[in-house]
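Retro notes, item 3 of 5
We never archived the inputs for the nickel (II) ion complex last cycle. Fixing that now. Sequence and ligand:
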Amino acid sequence: MLRPVVQYPNPLLAKKSEPVAEINDEIRALAQDMLDTLKTVGGVGIAAPQIGVLKRVVIIDVSLEKDDPEAPQDFRVFINPVVTVIDPKLSEENEGCLSVPELRSKVKRPRRVALEGLDLDGNTVRIEGEGYFSACMQHETDHLDGKLFIDHISYLKRSMYDKKMKKAR
Ligand code: NI
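Structure as it came back at the time:
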C-alpha cells in the first residue's frame, strides 16, 4: 500500500528507530508498504521512518552495485541493518532524499562499506560496495538513527535550505 512520505522538517525524521524483535506479519506488511511507496515515488532506497514507522528496516536497490544505469532495479529488504566501514577514505556522491524535497547535494562519506542485516525470512544478508552504492547504504541506515544527508552538508548550505523551506511553508 502506498503511504505518504514523511517530509523534512517533520521531527519524526530526527528520531531513533527501534530494532525489530520479531519478523512477523506487521513487519512483512511494513516492508511491502515501503516497497510500494518507493516504486511509486521512485528512488534507490527508503527507510521505515520515511513512511512514519520507527523500526529498523530499510530497502536498498542492490543493482547499484553494478554501477550501470541500465541495470534493472533490484530492491532488497534489510532488517536491523548494520554498516561497517571497509575503506574510510572519503568519497563524494551527489545525494537526494524522498523526505528532503528540492535538494541534491554532494556528501562526503567513507568510500567503501558493507551492510549486514536480515531478510524477511530471517536470513543474514551482507552486501558490500563503494561509490554511490556505499553512499546509499549509509544514507538509508542513517535514517534509522534520525540522521538525514543534510546533517552532513555545510552549515551555510543547510541554513540556506532551511530558509528556503521556511519560506515555502
Ligand atoms: Ni533518504
